[in-house]
Amino acid sequence: MDRRSFLIASGVVTGASLVPGAARASTRGTDRPRGARFSDPFTLGIASGDPLPDAVVIWTRLAPDPLAPAGGMPGRRVAVRWEVAKDEGFTKVVRRGAAIARPEEAHSVHVDVHGLSPHRWYWYRFRVGRELSPVGRTRTAPAVGTAPAVLATVNSCSQYEHGYFTAYRRMAEESPDVVFNLGDYIYEYEANDYVAPDGNVRDHIGDEINTLDEYRQRYAQYKGDPDLQFAHAVAPWIVTWDDHEVDNNYADLIPEDRDPEEGNATTASFAARRAAAYKAYWEHMPLRMSRQPSGPDMQLYRRFDFGATARFSVLDTRQYRTDQPCDDQFGVGCGEEFDPQATILGDEQASWLEQNLSSSRSAWNVLPQQIFMANLDAEPAEETPQDPNDGGYNDAWDGYRVSRQRLLSYVADRNIQNFVVLTGDIHSHWLADLRLDFEDPDSPVLGTEFVTTSITSNGDGSDQSSFFPFLAANSPHLRYNSNRRGYLLCTMDKSVYRTDYRVLDYVSRPGAPVRTDASFIVESGRPRAEAV
Ligand code: FE
Ligand code: CA
To answer: Ligand 2 centre from 184 Cα, in Å?
Structure first.
């Protein structure tokens, strides 16, 4: 039986266990227990994440009235029972316990389930009173020293208004061992402020979000989507944020709109907004308790070893960056992008990343992160840095060239093998060779950047981004592009890293099938990806 047949047989792929009421019909009924005040509290689904060889986080948030303040929950603590089993029927329960859902954490629970076996599938569910949650499936990471094949999917940018979340469902149907979300999981805008080229298909609730209650309500709106719930229910997610979880193109404590004279946020008021946004993010993601933010700070960058197969260094390129250069204009150079004081990771994270790379014993050194690393500056090499036409993507690594050079030089100098960067943000699929000098086609290839398109952002899209031919003509390191919606399917073992660029031809209506638009492999020890 292949993985997909197994999932269909077990009911996970069909979504049988996610049909509201289906799995719990027998426990509901007219004879409600005395004291039970809730209707179904599991309207936001369940999730798991941050897998280790012996542990995984399981998550839910109680919200019987998900869009209401506090999700319709009373302002008191509620006990949530949980269990983890080796089988979907819960005949072999291996761990169970009780967690406390607190009103100050939006009645979310983040249970760090320990004592599990490596690289195994588990099933989990929650119970409040006599209400049972849907059943989720999750998987631990492979053990140290083992090197099994790993199937990962990679996604980003799910603007709720721009389309239906079919790509999340198609991704879940691939039965990944692990899912990477690279940010823009929500968007902060009020309804119809950000409109897809062919119009929006549904609306955000409320104004642009600023307060904790508003961020919570926005997560509740997104997480009510059945395709997204399905995607969380089939595999553990490893998440990181980009900008829209807080504010478009913010940088550390600097908001997008930065003129206080025009009524924009001050640093202090933006810190309060970031604190609310980070808290709501933590409350709604399958992250460990230890990741809980403190005020406007939350350490999200972290490392996962999948045995000797892959080491994933998950980056945070928003919280510690200096302001974007050149007024954050696309394609404009001004010299500031070469500022040696500028940083995209901050010193601490940059050193941590270098340590991860030099100490890795895994075949693949993978960086799940947010923004384009390869050069998108299509001007010829002889242009001077101060030439206003010589800029690239200033919100991405192009805007922080000293940071980029530090990382790529480290990879070159330490001879870091099998360097793979995973990127989101740009709402289109790309493949790029990573070179020490992007202006020199003879500069050796150090690694490969696989960029995933969006789940929905920018609507149905087209076969190719309009600017790709121009960029590619002057930048041979840019080798593939698609402007359709979709995700990456990455299969890796000790010798080969394969990426299938999965696309859907529309998201403006539900139900699109998925197809592979292109596939590339990287062989261990040979950094340049080859089309297959
Ligand atoms: Fe986005
Ligand atoms: Ca973004």
So the answer is: 6
